[in-house]
Model the fold of this input.
Amino acid sequence: MKRVLVLGSSGQVGAYLVNELKEHGHKVFTMDIVNGLEEDLRIKSDKLETYISESDFVFFLAFDVGGSRYLSKYQHTFQFLDNNIKMMDTVFSYLNKYKTPFIFASSQMSNMSYSPYGILKAVGEQYTRVLQGRTVKFWNVYGIEHDPEKSHVITDFINKARNAGVIDMMTDGEEEREFLYAEDCTEALITLMNRYDDIPEEAPLHITSFLSTTIIDIANIIAMRYDAKVVPSDKKDSVQMDKRNQPDKFILNYWQPKTSINKGIELVARAMEDEV
Done:
């Protein structure tokens, strides 16, 4: 049994991870700003310092981020940059002080220098390298979300199909993404924690499905479930600008994804319906 701190514990990945860690018998500390300002990671606090000092392992998942709509609106603002810089300064300073083993959640966008979000994740990777932690790169992880402003494409499309019967898209949908169900992501994270000392510090840990799907195909899968209409835009992807990275398969030595995109969408849709 480990004492594990999850930063960003109410987020799209964090909520699943907290539940799974508890199922594995670990003692879990949680911090997320949605629980109150006393858990604001931009501010150094006795609570955060105590949790990091008493934990055997830390998952640094927290970040000011959302789906394409959120990034398009906010990633070029001062507040977005300031929020994430302050968060990293606070958390990494405590990780440095107490030398707690940790995983930092980066993104496959960290090599996209035209994206402020990508640049910030690249900075986090540098902190992690210096502190001898481990970096994972998430590739379009999806699961239940509760903040409509920050929702990613799958939950956004499900809400539109359910509530309006129309999925109005931000783009023409021709861009491709590698979608991974959050429970698969959680399994990968716990596996990496358990194998932490076996994993080289510079190991390329890309957590993805290794299968590409177009956004228009996602829309059609969801529309079919709800008998909804799909209305593509004539615009192109302005967030990733359709840059297509190729994931490194090193992580398959430790873990493999299990959930198909159709099954994952069905699981998320059912869970969202059950919450109503």
Summary: The chain has a mean pLDDT of 93.
